[in-house]
Design goal:
Elements lengths: L7 H13 L5 E7 L9 H8 L5 E7 L6 H13 L4 E3 L5 H24 L7 E7 L5 H9 L17 E4 L4 E5 L11 H10 L9 H15 L1 H8 L11 H11 L11 H13 L14 H8 L3
Helix pairs in contact: 6-7, 7-8, 7-10, 9-10
The structure holds guanosine-5'-triphosphate and magnesium ion.
The site of guanosine-5'-triphosphate (GTP) has 23 residues, from helix 5.
Length: about 300
């Protein structure tokens, strides 16, 4: 795939994030729990790492769609690397309450410092950053208790920078989602495209869907077989392309003449995967051999 997923506005937004870090107490970095490695923007990571005075929390969002065992493995992976990491869903009130507790705990020293210097008490300023479509605006609206920021099920919805006040002691800064100039490995590109971080209209959706299908076949053969009525026992041993065509036909994606309608099936598979209909699925695990390689090629 040779696509331009890094339009000019993302470069501009990345610069804005750098500037805005000056006025921030804490950064909540959201990534997608289904692809924590692929969905961490290395440029933002570096910007945040340069600012030791800013509290940094990594939130693995959309955990409701991911495989919980794998999400726990990722939490351990990042915690071992000294990152304050937690997971949950923007849509879940219990998860959000837990996140609020974590943020308050992390900001305690900062609040005490402000008080000890005799500075007038003020709300803490939080910035939400992350790739497009990972749920930043959804989380902000839920924390604010009102629909203050635009939310849609597609990447690139938030374009401007917007402060949103809340009654829980935080001012929240909603930022546009940003990717980075070189996404690195094929795995990273497919993971980001498959989960909906890149605009579908610039993608070859058949290729993306087929590669997601192959990943599912490798990692969750039972869930895939069940959903698409594939011969489960020998699915892994079969030619993936043959199974892909079979799945298309079983789901009624057939052209006149009986050939599978792969284009229609591609759309259907991606919709079902993204909505969590195939199951709770993680496309990468910290022990995957290609994860470290993928990490190394980002930048
Ligand atoms: N299942 C699930 N869906 C979520 C979660 N958080 C957000 N979403 C959905 O993800 C989609 C994108 O959410 P947004 O809040 O617009 O994402 P964003 O990060 O602000 O996206 P940009 O503004 O494009 O950068 C919406 O359809 C949300 O309902 C979550 O934790 N779980
Ligand atoms: Mg947004």
């Amino acid at each position: 795939m040779n696509i331009n997923w890094y339009p000019g506005h993302m470069a501009k937004s990345t610069r804005l994030i750098r500037e805005r870090l000056n006025e921030i107490d804490a950064v909540i970095e959201l990534c997608d729990a289904r692809i924590p490695q692929a969905s961490r923007n290395p440029v933002l990571e570096e910007l945040v790492n340069q600012r030791s005075e800013v509290v940094h929390i990594l939130w693995l969002n959309k955990a409701d769609l991911a495989d919980s065992d794998v999400t726990h493995a990722w939490e351990t992976y990042y915690a071992e690397r000294g990152i304050a990491v937690h997971s949950g869903s923007s849509l879940d009130e219990t998860d959000r309450r837990r996140l609020i507790r974590i943020i308050n705990e992390k900001l305690k020293n900062k609040v005490n410092q402000i008080q000890s210097r005799g500075i007038k008490k003020r709300d803490m300023r939080l910035m939400m950053i992350g790739i497009p479509n990972c749920g930043k605006s959804t989380l902000i609206n839920a924390l604010a208790g009102r629909k203050a920021a635009a939310v849609e099920d597609r990447p690139g919805v938030t374009r401007g920078v917007q402060w949103i006040r809340t009654n829980i002691g935080f001012d929240l800064l909603d930022m546009p989602g940003v990717l980075w100039p070189r996404l690195g490995s094929r795995h990273n590109q497919i993971a980001l495209a498959g989960t909906g971080a890149i605009q579908d209209r610039i993608l070859d959706l058949e290729t993306v869907a087929y590669e997601v299908f192959c990943l599912l076949l490798e990692k969750y053969p039972m869930a895939l077989s069940e959903r698409y009525k594939l011969p489960s026992i020998d699915s892994v041993a079969r030619d993936p392309y043959e199974l892909w065509q079979m799945a298309a036909q079983k789901r009624g994606c057939v052209r006149s003449g009986g050939k599978p309608d792969e284009h229609r099936f591609a759309g259907l598979l991606l919709d079902e995967f993204r909505a969590g209909i195939i199951g709770k699925i993680s496309l990468e695990h910290p022990d995957d051999p290609d994860v470290l390689t993928a990490e190394a090629t980002k930048g």
